[in-house]
Amino acid sequence: MNCPVGQSRTDQHSSDKLFFSYQQMEPVSLPPLSRVAICGGTHGNEMSGVYMVKELQKQKADQTGSVSVTTVLTNPRAVDACRRYIEIDLNRCFTDALLSAPVTDSTPYELRRARELNAQLGPKGSPEAVDLLCDIHNTTANMGMCLIFYSLDWITLHIYKYIKSKMTSTPVRAIQLDIPNSEAYSLESVGKHGFAIEVGPQPNGVVRADIFNMVREAVDLTKEWLQAFNSGNTFAGGEVEAYTLVRSVDYPRDPTTSDITAAIHPQLQDNDFKLLRPGNPTFLSFSGETVKHEGDELYPFFVNECAYYEKKIAFHLARKITLTFPSVSVKKD
Length: 333
Known about the structure:
By secondary structure, the chain is an alpha/beta fold. The protein has one domain (7-242, 322-330): 3-Layer(aba) Sandwich (Aminopeptidase). The chain has helices at residues 47-58, 76-81, 96-100, 109-121, 154-166, 209-230, and strands spanning 7-10, 28-30, 35-40, 63-64, 67-73, 132-138, 144-149, 172-176, 193-200, 238-249, 262-264, 281-285, 290-292, 299-301, 315-325, 328-330. The radius of gyration is 20 Å and the shape is globular. The model is unreliable at 1-19 (pLDDT under 50).
């Protein structure tokens, strides 16, 4: 995930910013992407990834043409317990600092497991790391199909463009977290290239056929693109829209007990990625009062995500941007 950053512009200020069109960008040749990891169960109660990995293992789908596929059930103890995690959130354990910290008798299980995964699929930032790592997640929020990534690189953006052009069953969006790879905390950052598939709504501990089929289609399209890339196809440059995180919003809370005092307002619930304007309702207090959005026009996502209550996050707010990238092809020997 160390490729050059794509050119970008925001939806609100695009006319004021100078950017290069993809027609002006030089074509890029990159090495073949032959080693791919498909992971699930990083959160043990997000069932689409769990069953996608088990199905791939059952099919012994470890080779697709030029692509060698490694499938990993990443947090097996949490999967067995059908819990998000056992001691700490595994998907926050992959920063350089945590991966290099000393292991002691008191080191939580998930930190130890992160070391094992880094050794198996990385090491992070090294030439030995898998070429692409795809980690599958579910959300209880109404987000459809999302690809989440850190550093912008041409491979990730081309795969996103390809999936978006082929999938018709649900909206497909991209979320970019502007965090250096050394501080990137989730599993997909271990690969040379990587992204998380986040799809919902789906309750924790539940598998839904429609959601599972979206995941399967995205995984199949990813492998299809990789095979075509390795076979010598040139993929034209282009532009895609994405959402970049601005800030997180907590629930209103009692200043003494810290208990929440309001729920997501019905007009915001299930409206992920719908533009939130000043004055729009965000919360409805348990006493019946409406709390309204203040500040810039932004896009909410992960609205009322179940797992984020413990993180004191009611929803994230993002800005929409346009990412521009060049044509890519495999580097010839």
